[in-house]
Design a protein that fits this description.
Rossmann fold; globular
């Protein structure tokens, strides 16, 4: 199975999700609407799509015109019932494509924050293997409402942390894919965008202590998503 990774910057890549895809015997293609290049192969040849984060915000179509094209692209994925998992900005863009409002969250989450699964997560094919509550790595200033018909799967004190839309689309606000080098790069370059805040001074140290366990959770989550996509591929 071929898996498409939609990225929004050089420092926001597939992380451990890419490792999981390849370890399960699949191939990962990276692509961005911002590159203004065609897909490596027709969209319907992919078995799943991963949509990752980025420094831009989901409502900044005026600053990043290609976001309009991505909105149409994601709407097409939803119409095709293509298995898709959005991460942070990717989750916000999925919600936006499903006509849910996106906006600044009252309390930005930069660092490690408690996340708790909802009752609906117990029977979800992607979330049922996760612990009921955990500390999640976060880096976001925006949130979104639940799209019509979506099921909320996880929450933090600040906002929705995960949802499922239909039987093939999931969004997570936390960065389950992130690796230690990625986090260190984000901290190093956090002044590149004037809209970004300043992470806690101890964030790198805290992340070094927690990243191994966090990567295990991320691998579990991505593995469950890929397994769900594999079932769809077999059915087709």
């Amino acid at each position: 199975m071929d898996v498409l990774a939609v990225i929004h910057g050089e420092r926001v890549r597939a992380g451990v999700f890419g490792d999981v895809v390849e370890e399960r015997g699949h191939r990962l293609d990276e692509w961005s609407l911002a590159w203004e290049t065609p897909l490596a192969q027709p969209l319907d040849s992919y078995g799943a799509v991963l949509v990752f984060g980025g420094a831009m915000h989901a409502d900044q179509d005026d600053r990043h015109p290609w976001l309009r094209e991505e909105n149409l692209f994601l709407q097409r994925l939803l119409m095709l019932h293509m298995p898709v998992l959005g991460v942070c900005l990717g989750a916000q863009l999925l919600a936006k494509a499903a006509l849910a409002p996106v906006y600044r969250v009252a309390t930005p989450e930069i660092g490690w924050f408690d996340v708790e699964l909802t009752d609906d997560a117990r029977d979800d094919p992607v979330f049922s293997h996760l612990p009921q509550d955990f500390e999640a790595f976060q880096w976001h200033y925006y949130t979104h409402d639940l799209p019509g018909g979506a099921v909320e799967l996880a929450r933090s004190a600040a906002c929705t942390q995960a949802f499922r839309l239909g039987d093939s689309a999931w969004g997570i606000q936390f960065h389950a894919e992130v690796t230690l080098p990625q986090v260190e790069s984000w901290i190093e370059h956090e002044d590149d965008d004037e809209e970004r805040g300043h992470p806690p001074e101890e964030l790198a140290e805290t992340t070094r202590a927690r990243i191994e366990g966090w990567n295990e959770l991320g691998r579990t989550l991505c593995g469950s998503f890929v397994e769900a996509a594999e079932r769809v591929a077999v059915a087709v």
